[in-house]
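User: Hey, quick favor. My workstation is busy. Could you predict this chain's structure for me?
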Amino acid sequence: MNLSQSFFNENIYYITPSQIIEFLYCKRFIYFMKCLGISQYEEKRFKVQLGRSIHEKKQKENKDYLRTKLNVIKKEINVPLISEKLGIKGIVDEVLTLEDKTMAPLDYKFAEYNDKIYDTYKTQIIMYALMIEEMYGSIVNKGYLVYCRNGHIVKEIEITDKSKDTLKNTIKEYLDVLQGYFPKATKYKSRCIDCCYSNICIK
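Assistant: No problem, here it is.
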């Protein structure tokens, strides 16, 4: 299913993985930026860049090796994804069809694996899974990350019904904030230090 970016309706607002990641970092950040329309200064918020610069430096070597290792029978590259039901969109590095007929998103990360998979990465993969299920009508119960700076280490992420439902609730809450709901501040106060909205945010 090859879709160009023109597939996205420019007159409809779709939520992207990076926006949900920002929302989970601090829900008030989205309130100030999207609901009130107050400009952001992201150069002062380096932490928000987690997971963003990756796509600028993709490395796609060893594709045949990865396909064999993951029991892939078909794959599509740089696939535009969308969920009309949830109002989300994104572009995944690869959509894999596996031997058991399930499907899986695969994303390349220009990063090193340090015995931990960031929640931001998991959120992104689960969003891709939700869109793949809707677009392809297929089951998605796993996803993959390829860490390019470790010689292409592949890590599998389990995608459960619970994790899908949790993310759906987060998307709903995001939409509530766009309608004017003022969310609670993050409980991690260290995140407020480099936030461009710290001088106007009621703690």
